[in-house]
DNA sequence: CGATTCACG
DNA sequence: ACGTACGTGAATCGA
């Protein structure tokens, strides 16, 4: 009975401004466009639909309608030709999105409102006013557009949908009056009329901006009254208002939302209905909105948010929660604070320049500093299947850093920090031991950003993490290999969130640098929790992206499993014979001093030989060497590189001396002097860092020190390898090299039968190439021919040019051209392969390896010939170099696991692109040698079956092992 | 901090 | 007509 009286059910009407919401959603995704597998940009559709779903779920309206701008020009255009004139044409992506959006709205059984000749705001304004008159107590105009402020009344309010970290916002009369500093909402029109609106091309009055408009309207109440009292104004302002009075009035008129649109308000038609589930599912399938479908249609919570918690875990959590009302297990829907899962509130809207931070995002970060709380946390951790964690330490050097605390996160927006109770290593050890069940748990996926660091820290406390890993840094490396992968920029780009910079805690680099240990745990907690939280959310963003482009397997089967292998290699370190280095340093210094004297003598003066500038002046100005062959660098200095000096050396002895001086100085400063300084005090070994996310091709790189460029090509350089030794007299170094991997890969990819045959027969490939290129029988190939052929072979892999080849083997360009032509005649499939590689890259704008690793080549279609040429060479080289990297990475994983499973004492200690070095007990050498060979040769099988060969050597030092 | 040079694959 | 082989990292000089 009561339900039939109009006042009883609380009627709640939502009117959505479609275009305003669509535009906002579209531009929110413009930085990381979302594209489905058919190439449709779905950002606007997803954003809009998310907003719609959110309002349905959270606000539960009883009535709803979506307004679009009507067709044909509006009265505003007739009134003012420039209206919205400079606004750009609708982006094509939005045009394509609109039919889908309309279908989705229809599938929700929500009426679409549009009136010819009127814009959506007029329609919404008119309907809102009439709804109010018909007794609706709550009417919400859903829009991000501030023009609507003029319409706000006690019943009619603006609903600004949730916007990144900012929750949905309701603007009522009080808000509007405060924001525009006016007495009545209608005066918003006067403000807008005076200050104009650049985006709608409403001119306003020149010289009047936001501040002045507010002041003038406070004083005069309206544009009309201001004009009537223009005498009271002063100077330039008076002149402007006088001169542009008409423009001001017109602007006010343009800004006015018209409430007389010819449209009936029929409440019945706006009643919220059940959606057409089948139709929605069809649309979501086509658009590939998997998570949205799960959330809307399957009644599930967002998969990414709670999907990682097993049902049992959830029940457990709830029970415990109810029982003690504790910290753990906030209901998932309250935890969507900064989630960016498929257009979660977080990623919905983030116009450039608007960024969320810790301060304006809802989150629950907890500091757990009692044994009881830690025990409770551990209990919950063990119920999860995916947890992100982070270690806080006293520094970045893994060998010396000490643990300060651990943070964990398994629900977005909710994280826990456990500090080491006292600043001593025993306390840290005890804490790690307490959480050992978590690190040992095979069933938990451990997520981290640069997780190798955390693994290494934990190794120092005796923990070998088990179970699968997911590194967000590596995930992004696969998505965008040539970008940076730091957590802060990833959070900015993918979550529209700005993490607290570490410098805010420990200050800028330099002396007096604090560490995490110097700060109260409460302060570290937020930072640490944020890291774990952001990392978890990045994982949720990256995983579907990787899946879309087919890179998830590469991540899960190569990059992530390689992490513990690299951690082990780095942790193990390499034994360096510092004494031998010391002796050699002195020896080199002797040569260097001698060379210096001779050089000064030749030059007739003393100067800094290490300064290319001074050297150039001495050689080319004072000594007048070089003749016309003088080259300059791009900065206008004389070029004094190896190539130049070698040419000079024929008739100027000083050039040869300088080359030798340079070589020896390099050896001494970069290796002989530097390496012993990097020996770790704790174990007397050198620990390099292998970077897994720097190269564009998929190779590793090595820093601090770089152990991938230890000399070998010259006699004096090679000597340095004698100082790389096994751990003790009972061990040997074992070096295993792939022989000509890259050439084999190219032979296989091209399917060139001539070259494949040579490899199958186990021929020396350079001799074989020489025989073809110089058209002589194999046994007549001399060493000079072989040398040239070797250069050609390398050149091919790099994307050869006649000029480059001529330069390198010291022949004329004509001769080089002939050699290349003959090469392509003999190996015609190789030529085909090179052309195909370029064409494929032109099409895709990326090149890919055997395992699908991508290198984007966005300049491949450039009109700049130089740039294009460079990119074309990359199109040839990247798949080859990258596949070689894929292969050795797989081999490393397999060997590491085999050594571990066999409980062998042999340790992998280095990787140098096509070589692995092991420190092996002498008695294991015979057993491991064939197995290592086999595991390397079969790590990946090439499509055409070209075999991989591995050469193994052992010795008392790295030089002997070759 | 960029440019130059040179060590490696 | 133009510039010229792929991928790295470290030391050094000098603005």
UniProtKB/TrEMBL annotation:
What SMART domains does its record include? 35EXOc, 53EXOc, HhH2, POLAc
Q: What is its EC number?
A: 2.7.7.7
Residue ranges of domain 5'-3' exonuclease in the record: 11-273
Q: Which reaction does it catalyse?
A: DNA(n) + a 2'-deoxyribonucleoside 5'-triphosphate = DNA(n+1) + diphosphate
Q: Does the keyword ATP-binding apply?
A: no
- What broad class of enzyme is this? transferase
- Coiled-coil region(s): none
> The organism sits in which domain of life?
Bacteria
* GO molecular function terms attached to this record: 3'-5' exonuclease activity; 5'-3' exonuclease activity; DNA binding; DNA-directed DNA polymerase activity
Q: Which GO terms describe its biological process?
A: DNA-templated DNA replication; double-strand break repair
Region: Disordered, residue numbers: 300-328
Q: Which UniProt keywords apply?
A: DNA damage, DNA repair, DNA replication, DNA-binding, DNA-directed DNA polymerase, Exonuclease, Hydrolase, Nuclease, Nucleotidyltransferase, Transferase
Q: Which residues form the DNA-directed DNA polymerase family A palm domain?
A: 717-924
3'-5' exonuclease domain location is: 365-547
* Alphabetical list of Gene3D superfamilies matching this protein: 3.30.70.370, 5' to 3' exonuclease, C-terminal subdomain, 5'-nuclease, Ribonuclease H-like superfamily/Ribonuclease H, Taq DNA Polymerase, Chain T, domain 4
**InterPro entries linked:** 3'-5'_exonuclease_dom (IPR002562), 5-3_exonucl_a-hlix_arch_N (IPR020046), 5-3_exonuclease (IPR002421), 5-3_exonuclease_C_sf (IPR036279), DNA-dir_DNA_pol_A_CS (IPR019760), DNA-dir_DNA_pol_A_palm_dom (IPR001098), DNA/RNA_pol_sf (IPR043502), DNA_polI_H3TH (IPR020045)
Q: Which Pfam families match?
A: 5_3_exonuc, 5_3_exonuc_N, DNA_pol_A, DNA_pol_A_exo1
Q: Which NCBIfam families match?
A: pola, PRK05755.1
| Primary role | In addition to polymerase activity, this DNA polymerase exhibits 3'-5' and 5'-3' exonuclease activity.
> What is stated as this protein's family in its record?
Belongs to the DNA polymerase type-A family.
What this protein is called in its record is DNA polymerase I
Q: What is the lineage of its organism?
A: Bacteria, Pseudomonadati, Bacteroidota, Cytophagia, Cytophagales
């Amino acid at each position: 009975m009561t339900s039939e009286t109009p006042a009883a059910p609380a009627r709640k009407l939502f009117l959505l401004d479609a275009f305003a919401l669509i535009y906002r959603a579209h531009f929110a995704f413009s930085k990381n466009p979302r594209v489905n597998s058919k190439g449709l940009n779905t950002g606007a559709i997803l954003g809009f639909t998310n907003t719609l779903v959110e309002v349905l779920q959270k606000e539960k309206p009883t009535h709803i309608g979506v307004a679009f701008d009507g067709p044909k020009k509006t009265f505003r255009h007739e009134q003012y030709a420039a209206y919205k004139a400079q606004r750009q044409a609708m982006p094509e992506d939005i045009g394509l999105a609109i039919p889908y959006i309309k279908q989705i709205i229809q599938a929700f059984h929500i009426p679409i409102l549009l009136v010819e000749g009127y814009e959506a705001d007029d329609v919404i304004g008119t309907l809102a006013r009439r709804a109010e008159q018909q007794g609706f107590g709550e009417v919400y105009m859903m829009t991000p557009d501030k023009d609507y402020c003029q319409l706000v009344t006690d019943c009619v309010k603006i609903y600004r949908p949730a916007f990144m970290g900012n929750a949905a916002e309701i603007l009522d009369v009080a808000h509007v009056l405060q924001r525009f500093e006016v007495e009545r909402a209608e005066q918003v029109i006067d403000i807008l009329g005076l200050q104009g609106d650049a985006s709608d091309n409403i001119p306003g009055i020149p010289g009047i901006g936001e501040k002045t408009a507010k002041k003038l309207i406070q004083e005069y109440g309206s544009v009309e009254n201001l004009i009537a009292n223009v005498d009271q104004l002063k100077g330039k302002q008076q002149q402007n208002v006088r001169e542009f009075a008409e423009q001001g009035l017109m602007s006010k008129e343009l800004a006015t939302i018209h409430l007389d649109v010819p449209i009936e308000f029929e409440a019945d038609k706006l009643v919220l209905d059940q959606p057409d589930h089948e139709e929605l599912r069809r649309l979501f399938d086509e658009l590939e909105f998997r998570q949205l479908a799960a959330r809307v249609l399957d009644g599930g919570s967002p998969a990414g948010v709670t999907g990682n918690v097993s049902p049992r875990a959830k029940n457990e959590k709830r029970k415990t929660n109810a029982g003690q009302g504790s910290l753990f297990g906030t209901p998932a829907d309250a935890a969507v604070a900064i989630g960016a899962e498929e257009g979660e509130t977080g990623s919905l809207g983030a116009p450039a320049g608007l960024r969320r931070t810790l301060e304006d995002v809802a989150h629950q970060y907890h500091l757990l500093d009692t044994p009881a709380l830690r025990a409770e946390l551990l209990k919950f951790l063990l119920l999860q299947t995916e947890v992100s964690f982070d270690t806080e330490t006293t520094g970045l050097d893994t060998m010396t850093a000490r643990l300060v605390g651990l943070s964990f996160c398994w629900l977005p927006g909710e994280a826990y920090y456990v500090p080491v109770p006292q600043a001593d290593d025993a306390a840290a050890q005890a804490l790690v031991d307490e959480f050992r069940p978590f690190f040992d748990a095979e069933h938990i996926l451990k997520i981290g950003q640069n997780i190798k660091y955390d693994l290494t820290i934990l190794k120092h406390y005796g923990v070998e993490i088990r179970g699968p890993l997911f590194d967000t840094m590596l995930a992004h490396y696969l998505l965008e290999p040539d970008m940076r992968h730091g957590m802060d920029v990833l959070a900015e780009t993918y979550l529209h969130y700005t993490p607290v910079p570490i410098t805010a805690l420990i200050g800028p680099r330099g002396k007096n640098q604090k560490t995490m240990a110097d700060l109260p745990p409460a302060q570290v907690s937020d930072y640490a929790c944020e890291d774990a939280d952001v990392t978890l959310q990045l994982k949720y963003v990256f995983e579907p992206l990787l899946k879309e482009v087919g890179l998830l397997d590469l991540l899960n089967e190569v990059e992530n499993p390689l992490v513990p292998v690299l951690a082990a290699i780095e942790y193990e370190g390499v034994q360096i014979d510092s004494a031998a280095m010391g002796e050699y340093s002195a020896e080199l210094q002797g040569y260097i001093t001698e060379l210096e004297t001779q050089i000064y003598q030749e030059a007739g003066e003393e100067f800094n030989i290490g300064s290319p500038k001074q050297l150039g002046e001495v050689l080319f100005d004072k000594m007048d060497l070089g003749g016309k062959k003088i080259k300059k660098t791009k900065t206008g200095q004389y070029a004094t590189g190896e190539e130049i000096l070698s040419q000079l050396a024929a008739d100027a002895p000083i050039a040869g001396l300088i080359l030798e001086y340079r070589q020896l100085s390099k050896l001494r400063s970069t290796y002989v002097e530097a390496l012993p300084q990097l020996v770790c005090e704790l174990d007397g070994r050198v620990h390099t860092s292998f970077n897994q996310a720097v190269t564009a091709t998929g190779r590793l790189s090595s820093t601090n020190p770089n152990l991938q460029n230890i000399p070998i090509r010259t006699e004096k350089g090679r000597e340095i390898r004698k100082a790389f030794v096994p751990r003790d007299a009972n061990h040997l170094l074992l070096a295993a090299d792939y022989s000509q991997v890259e050439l084999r890969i190219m032979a296989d990819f091209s399917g060139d039968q001539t070259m494949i045959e040579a490899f199958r027969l186990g021929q020396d490939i350079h001799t074989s190439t020489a025989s073809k290129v110089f058209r002589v029988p194999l046994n007549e190939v001399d060493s000079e021919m072989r040398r040239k052929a070797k250069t050609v072979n390398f050149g091919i892999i790099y994307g050869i040019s006649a000029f480059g080849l001529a330069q390198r083997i010291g022949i004329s360009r004509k001769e080089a051209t002939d050699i290349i032509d003959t090469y392509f005649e003999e190996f015609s499939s190789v030529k085909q392969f090179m052309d195909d590689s370029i064409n494929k890259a032109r099409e895709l704008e990326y090149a890919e390896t055997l395992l699908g690793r991508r290198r984007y080549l966005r300049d491949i279609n450039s009109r700049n010939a130089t740039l294009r040429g460079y990119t074309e060479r990359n199109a040839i080289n990247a798949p080859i170099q990258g596949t070689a990297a894929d292969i050795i990475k797989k081999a490393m994983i397999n060997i590491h696991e085999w050594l571990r499973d066999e409980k062998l004492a042999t340790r992998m200690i280095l990787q140098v692109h096509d070589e692995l070095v092991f420190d092996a007990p002498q008695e294991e050498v015979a057993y491991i040698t064939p197995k290592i060979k086999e595991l390397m040769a079969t790590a990946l099988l090439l499509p055409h079956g070209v075999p991989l060969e591995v050469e193994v050597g052992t010795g008392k030092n790295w030089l002997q092992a070759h």
